[in-house]
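[Automated response] Your request has been received and processed.

Submitted sequence:
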Amino acid sequence: MKETIKRLQTLADRADKYNYPEDSNIGVRISDIRAVLEFYKSTIKESGLTEDEFNNGGYTDSELNCKSGCMGPCGQCKDEPPNAPDITPEWSSLDEKFKWVAIDPDGVEIAFIRKPQKLQKYMHGCNAWTGRNCQSTGRFIDMKGIDWAKTLSKRPAK
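Generated structure:
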């Protein structure tokens, strides 16, 4: 293998020295090609990664294309980042009349009697506007990495 790498380096140096265009054809022995391919395959095998992961610096294609940008090797990402706080409403602590819960960008959790037509950016003032239709639950959620507009939850059926 050492000889193959040395030969390929010599060819690359010669191409640089004589300004060969990048699409130039040069003579490479079949044995050199096989040696390089065998080295490549053994390196991948030793790494314990798949070929895609190896070529992507250890990341899978799905991690590289992650919407949240975390690129972590967790594989948990779909629409929310890994290790996101649990935003499941604590239904048992809410009056039965509240059928919906949402969280605003500040992390204030609000319970609603009726499904809101549209979530407002700041809902925690809802008591002043609607009185009986909604109220703060008293919970505050760390909203880092969470899209508040996707937090509306309906009370599960019994």
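Summary generated for your ticket: The mean pLDDT is 76. The radius of gyration is 29 Å.
If you did not submit this request, please reply to this message.
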